[in-house]
Amino acid sequence: METKDQKKHRRKNSGPKAEKKKKRHLRDLQLGDEEDARKRNPKAFAVQSAVRMARSFHRTQDLKTKKHHIPVVDRTPLEPPPIVVVVMGPPKVGKSTLIQCLIRNFTRQKLTEIRGPVTIVSGKKRRLTIIECGCDINMMIDLAKVADLVLMLIDASFGFEMETFEFLNICQVHGFPKIMGVLTHLDSFKYNKQLKKTKKRLKHRFWTEVYPGAKLFYLSGMVHGEYQNQEIHNLGRFITVMKFRPLTWQTSHPYILADRMEDLTNPEDIRTNIKCDRKVSVYGYLRGGHLKNKSQIHIPGVGDFAVSDVSFLPDPCALPEQQKKRCLNEKEKLVYAPFSGVGGVLYDKDAVYVDLGGSHGFQESVRPTHELVQSLISTHSTIDAKMASSRVTLFSDSKPLVSEDIDNQGLWMPKEEKQVDLKTGRVRRKAIFGDEEDDSGDSDDEEDKEMSEGDRLENSSSDDETEEGEDAEMTGKQCMSGKGIKRQKLEMEEDVEVDLPAFADSDDDLERSSVEEATEEADESIEEEDSTAEEERDILESKVVREGGKPGLLQTDDLSDSLNLEKSLTMKKATLTTSDSGHCTAEEAFASEDESEENSLSTEEEDSENEEVIRKKFPNPSQVVSSQKLGSENLIDETSDIEDLLREEEDYKEENDYSTETSGALKWKEDLSRKAAEAFLRQQQTTPNLRKLIYGTVTEDNEEEDGDTKEELGGLFRVSQSASECKHKADSLDCSRFHVEVPHDWDLEEVMNSIRDCFVTGKWEEDKDAAKILAEDEELYGDFEDLETGDVHKGKSGPDTQVEDVEEEVKEEIDPNAEESAKKKHLDKKRKLKEMFDAEYDEGENTYFDDLKGEMQKQAQLNRAEFEDQDDEARVQYEGFRPGMYVRIEIENVPCEFVLNFDPHYPIILGGLGNSEGNVGYVQMRLKKHRWYKKILKSRDPVIFSVGWRRFQTIPLYYIEDHNGRQRLLKYTPQHMHCGATFWGPITPQGTGFLAVQSVSGIMADFRIAATGVVLDLDKSIKIVKKLKLTGFPYKIFKNTSFIKGMFNSALEVAKFEGAVIRTVSGIRGQIKKALRAPEGAFRATFEDKLLMSDIVFMRTWYPVSVPAFYNPVTSLLKPAGEKDTWSGMRTTGQLRLAHGIKLKASKDSLYKPVVRQKKHFNSLHIPKALQKALPFKSKPKTQAKAGKIPKDRLRPAVVREPHERKILALLDALSTVHSEKMKKAKEQRHLHNKEHFKVKQKEEEEKLKRQKDLRKKLYRIQGQKERRNQKSSLKGPEEQLK
Amino acid sequence: MATQAHSLSYAGCNFLRQRLVLSTLSGRPVKIRKIRARDDNPGLRDFEASFIRLLDKITNGSRIEINQTGTTLYYQPGLLYGGSVEHDCSILRSIGYYLESLLCLAPFMKHPLRIVLRGVTNDQVDPSVDVLKATALPLLKQFGIDGESFELKIVRRGMLPGGGGEVFFSCPVRKVLKPIQLTDPGKIKRIRGMAYSVRVSPQMANRIVDSARSILNKFIPDIYIYTDHMKGVNSGRSPGFGLWLVAETTNGTFLSAELVSNHQGQGAAVLPEDLGRNCAKLLLEEIHRGGCVDSTNQSLALLLMTLGQQDVSKVLLGPLSPYTIEFLRHLKSFFQIMFKIETKPCGEELKGGDKVLMTCVGIGFSNLSKTLK
């Protein structure tokens, strides 16, 4: 029974196994398998038709080229910033739920309330920033510009909503990021068939909008208010593996989607004026291009700002470091969302601490920590007041400390806080000791001393109150941080504490030394000392912080660590001294150059010196506050200004300089101090000096600077002296030629030899020397035979090589290096061979496209490699801040509403602007009204454009370009056609897409995007014209000449239009000739025909129109929370009229009136008698009078018959009818008869003809016989005849 | 508000060209104060005024404000327009003075620039038109500025003090520039040059050639120095003669030197033999300095590197000239760009003095004037 149930085995007909079997079968049969069919059966593959072959070749080539994109240099950074995922959809579609589910999927954490962007680590190499987008069009526009991926949520039970389509169109305009649809609310379908149908319908509609085959996800239903885990997991998987194509605008501009914002305004300023402009710092990942310090940015919804300071911070949501594992462990699954309040986020100047507080956080007493920190972060009163009121509990059971308890120390670090180590993702407690520790106490004292000293000095020197205050604050902060660090270090495990004193001691020693230095110098310099000491200390401390991190992490080998630390510190010291000495050489150079005044180079250097001096002299308050290493660097602009200020006095030696410089080329043997040149060269040999010479200070030699200033600056007097000395440069000759100051003596052999190798005749490098290369080749290929001559070339003569080989072997035995070199040689040989093979093999394949791609790849590699080995501090200087960095940006003069009305739900985007993108001008674009927008747009009606990063209201003019290039104004945009538009506004690069909306406030039922297009041209002037018709009237008409008045007002105007073409309404063309004396403005004109007095003459001209200079950024972010979608700008005249109830006053002439037509009366045609006579009869008017009335006398009376007569008449009628019938019949009969007769006749005729024919035949035969006979007889002769 | 952002301020008339050119390219307004404020003859000179006029001609919408004494200049740049322009340069400076700036600006116009400059073609202060033609044009070609219409033609030669020269310069427009990697200058394979003379005996040129060759022949045999004697209307208004030499390397680097005779009424007469010899020595000096770019064109190369795509560009230069150093500072203040400067000591090789390797990342400049069709 069982056997019956089994399926019969079916042999496989396809698939690899079947193929194999088939092959084996064929092989068994000894046939087939002879390579491919092409070889087996060449005839089948022969060219049948050349044309078809050409066509197919064309087609394949076309398909191939279609696939090509223009190659671009890959500029994606090694560690890319998180991908921006925008979750978009109409309200109540499940956006927040989806975000929550996604976050939970990736991080195993549940966020209850999501505000603003959430950054999570989604994989080993990918991070995501997820942000929700509501249906406020402002938000939609902003987010479409920064999105990398859009999750478009669609309520399947409802279908598509307007927002979805709007957002799609916005995306299309601004670069089209990846879009993925997500269908929700699928559980509301009861019947499966209906669900299927809906899915299909929505999918196809989605495809027409995005691209056929675009991914649409289905979230089938909710389980406990969340989407199903498996579905979310799949979605997450899709997101993590997705690839992105770079978008032009995004890659060419740096931008930041801020995930954190702080108000840094001085609380005192806010107290005095609550509406004062604010200073804020914004945090976020840098995306797109490189961001330069001091560059221009635009915050959509707020306005344009200059970056006042940028600094990069350690990544708060870093990618895991070791890549060995397949997936992330729990600790690496970070989440970072400061706006949503994920963890108690703390930040220092150079570190951001995230407290996850979730799965793996310690739940110990966090309270007291936060009290102070929170109060510090949200500063509402001045720091003094704050300090007075704040208290700190050092131990959980001790009494809280008040500020008086802490003697004059400024601030304490919070007692205990949780920190997440960014590298390992581990949370650890950071704890603090009291001041029982002697060492720290000592250092505190010292610091206090130093600080108070500094304060005193400052009090005496500086008049500026605020600066002092800030300085004090700074030092206070510094103290705090210093202490905090020390404390942090001290509080560790027990065994650590044993080691710690030494550790702290070393630290203190250094500090003390610096302090001592500072005090010594205090006598000499007044202000500078303070700052330098501080800077030094800062650097040291930051160093310590860095080092201090390690022991905390490892906790086991603290001893080695502390040793390390010491080592590093000493090293640091060494570098300090070395750099100082390096600088000293420069100093010497300066000194030597001072002697030779003519040397322009010396002036250069002095200048740079001066620059430094000045910088030290006027330390900018902001610099001090920021106390950043880069701080001084960032201020070059200001300092150069100051420097220029100081240079204002003219040095009259300049004249002499001029002459020497100009004639330098000729009088080049004049005595110029050789020493100066040498010094210059020596100075150039040290790179940092050359760099410093050019750019002033750089980060690396901050320490040098300090030393420098100590020596340079004795006091004010010397500064002013040096300032006056090096001033003559400002007004000297502007010439790019680099004159030879100290010429070499080119007659000397050694000097000549110094440039020998610059010529092809000189020695070549190893790898380029022809002889060498030849030798190498020989070595490679060895012997070869010249076939032509028959010579045999040997690589090396046999015995020699053998000997050498032996020698080499011997050498190898002795020297391991030789072996290595041999190996290397061998490898080289191999490589060379391979290269040659590659070159030979690939030659045919290389196309232009491949070359281009290769070039781009090479460039990309170079870009990556160039600055790789440098540390970030230096790298940032050259490249700017690179994308992927977590940066902090300070912005000043931000409107207070930005801070007061801050709403984290709204995205804050800092879009970097390119050069001159902050300027305004006329922007021309190609525009098309959106086909779904119901109205058309009117010229000079304000509309809101979204171009580049910006959203702004402006007044565009629409135009169309005529065939001759004239741009003619249009009153309205065409319905279904492109037209041009010009507005006055910010300059945006050509090729940038834009969209226009009429209003951003409220929710309209209809589609909101009014128009889309692309920027074509930027200019500072426009040439749009509109038609103008000037009319005039003839007042005197000669033959073809007329005098016309009323067109112009003066003879001058006429003169301007002499020769212009004019026309009458009836179409007679003419030309303006000359003005007439009277009446004013009249002129003589000639026409091609004579005018009538009733004619109107007009001239067609073009009048240039002007674009109103109106540019009004949409400041939607400044509106109060909850009203951010109510921004309204300038209203159109139509709206104003509606609002005020003003009716448009129509001109009387343009009103329509009922048309009244008069009845037309035509006279009869009258032809003269003479003419009538001459006409032919046909054309003659027929005078047949109508049957007019017959006069009564002629009227015949009606005949009334008698009955008898009637009978007779009836009888006659009947008889005649009978008769006619008879006749008819007879006729028919006759006809028939005739026909028959005719037939008979014809027959007879035929017969007759036949007979005649036969007869004739007979006759002719006889006749013929007769004739023949006759002929015969005639041949016989007369005898026979006679017979 | 987007307008009038962040203008820069400078004092003194030096580096006026740099400031105005960079201002035009970056779109940042610039204010220059105290122009020869303490001079007997304060304010802008004729040649500077002429330069400003030239800038006005090739731009659209520039705003230039000069105070009464001419000691303060405010320049708010417009967009570069280009087209066909004619300009009479002041004879206080040679055409090279104007041409250097035009070379910086010409690739970024709205319409390709076709300009006729009239004035002095060769003088002792500025790089002459010949040298710029021989060195700057190949340099621009490295950045992808090339084409049929890219030419610099000396129609008439004009010497000091009369002037009367005429130069035609046309340059195509580019949207973006290519990054360059010029780190190996190669070896000099030939030396070319031209000895020119106007309104003096044509024999002068031959004498110059002989003396110059006598020096250079010691290094390389491939030398050809043309002689150019312009006559009639093409010879300008004043007599004079001079020599320019250019050394071409295997990698397409051009190093140049030039020398011009003293003009009428200026100093002692110069013997053509001396001039030839001195010029040859100047060329050797230039070769000693070395690098991939001629010392006069350093700033041009650096500017075009700055204005490239967001890619790394490298160039090896000889010692930086003071003009270049100031130019680098200006680049920093206008474009926030800093160059990585590495000194390359010459070592044992006999290749002249130390070199400097300049590296930068372009700012991703794109030509905002060019119309999209």
Structure overview:
The complex is a heterodimer of chains A (1283) and B (373). Chain A has 1283 residues and is α+β, with helices and mostly antiparallel strands. In chain A, the strands form eight sheets. A seven-stranded mixed β-sheet of chain A has the order 6-5-4-1-3-2-14, with helices on both faces. Chain A has a six-stranded antiparallel barrel with strand order 9-11-23-13-12-24. In chain A, 33% of the residues are buried. Chain B is α+β, with helices and mostly antiparallel strands and 373 residues long. Among the domains of chain B are: 1-79, 2-Layer Sandwich (Translation Initiation Factor IF3), CATH 3.30.110; 188-289, RNA 3'-terminal phosphate cyclase, insert domain (Dihydrodipicolinate Reductase, domain 2, 2-Layer Sandwich), CATH 3.30.360.20; 293-361. Chain B has helices at 16-26, 46-58, 95-105, 129-142, 203-216, 272-289, 298-306, 322-335, and strands at 8-11, 30-33, 59-60, 63-66, 73-76, 79-80, 82-88, 111-119, 151-156, 165-171, 181-182, 188-198, 223-230, 240-249, 254-260, 312-317, 340-344, 355-361. In chain B, the strands form five sheets. Chain B has a four-stranded mixed β-sheet with strand order 1-2-5-4, covered by helices on one side. A four-stranded mixed β-sheet of chain B has the order 7-8-10-9, with helices on one face. The radius of gyration of chain B is 21 Å and the shape is globular. The chains are: A alpha+beta (1283), B alpha+beta (373). Chains A and B meet through β13, α19, α22, α24 and α25 of A and β1, α1, α6, α8 and β17 of B. Chain A: It is found in: Nucleus, Nucleolus. Chain A: It catalyses: GTP + H2O = GDP + phosphate + H(+). Chain A: Residues 1229-1249 have a biased composition (Basic and acidic residues).
